[in-house]
Description:
The chain is mostly beta strands and 117 residues long. The protein has one domain: Immunoglobulin-like (Sandwich). It is built from 1 helix and 10 strands, in the order ββββββββαββ. The protein has a 5-stranded mixed β-sheet, with no helix packed on it. Strands 2-8-7 form a 3-stranded antiparallel β-sheet. A two-stranded antiparallel ribbon has the order 3-4. A hairpin with a 2-residue loop joins β7 and β8. The termini are far apart.
Amino acid sequence: MAQKMIQIEMARGDTLEKGFILKQGGQPSTDVFDDVFFTVKKYHTDHDFVLQKRMSNGGIVYDGQGHYTMFIDPEDTNDLSFGDYDCDIEFKREGYKRTFYGKFKLAKEVTHYYNED
């Protein structure tokens, strides 16, 4: 069965709270992970990421029953270019890693952060 691709779109410089559920066999996963990563790069082949959120530093929160919430703040994307990026969400614990790939799109904004003063 093919894995569903992640697709996230937001206006650059906005706030985003994005919930997602990890499922196994069609049911919410009860697995406990050491860390969960959301990583964004312009191209998947780039060495450095342009944005990363981690459960270990509070950027992603485990809400229970396989549900996670990711928090993106305005300053996370203020200085990024509009357009498409490669991204993935990775669940990791010792001896196990599961990755879901996708696209992250920063839509245009007209009121930039420096226009808000």
